[in-house]
Amino acid sequence: MAEKPAAKPKAAAAKAEAKDQSDSYAIVEASGQQFWLQPNRYYDLDRLQAAVDDTVTLENVLLIKDGKNDTTVGQPYVKGASVELKVMDHRRGPKIIVYKMRPKKKTRRKNGHRQELTRVMVQSISIDGKALS
């Protein structure tokens, strides 16, 4: 039987690097809500006043965890921490239908609502000017 060649150190290092990046995240406060953001992923936030392809920086960072089991918790915010986002698109959420009816009164009211959203891509998470990703 032929033995499999040992894994190359570069491949193992690349896997470890990818795992470290996937383990890093930040919890930020944006538009009255808290979001768990990871680098190189996109998220839908409430509509931001920014043009497409603009860069937005969020300073209200509540928690940062890098891939090396180092967690920084703010009180209430982490000092010197920021998350850089790139605006990809402005879109609208799914339609929600609100139907109100009073029985036996012939009163019916139907309303629809679509939330205005901004799709953003997380460019980097940094603390004290040093990027984690």
Largest sheet: 5 strands, antiparallel
Radius of gyration, taken over Cα atoms and rounded to an integer in Å = 22 Å
User: What is the structural class?
Assistant: mainly beta
Distance between the termini: 43 Å
**Which parts are unreliable, with pLDDT below 50 for 5 consecutive residues or more?**
none
How many domains? The number is: 1
What is the percentage of strand-forming residues? Answer: over 45%
Task: Kindly state the number of beta strands.
Answer: 11
Shape: elongated
Subunit structure: Part of the 50S ribosomal subunit. Contacts protein L20.
Function: This protein binds to 23S rRNA in the presence of protein L20.
GO biological process, one term: translation
Pfam families: Ribosomal_L21p
Task: Please characterize this protein's 3D structure.
The protein is mainly β and 133 residues long. It is built from one helix and eleven strands. Strands 3, 4, 7, 10 and 11 form a five-stranded antiparallel sheet that branches. It has a four-stranded antiparallel sheet with strand order 2-1-5-6. The radius of gyration is 22 Å and the shape is elongated. The two termini are 43 Å apart.
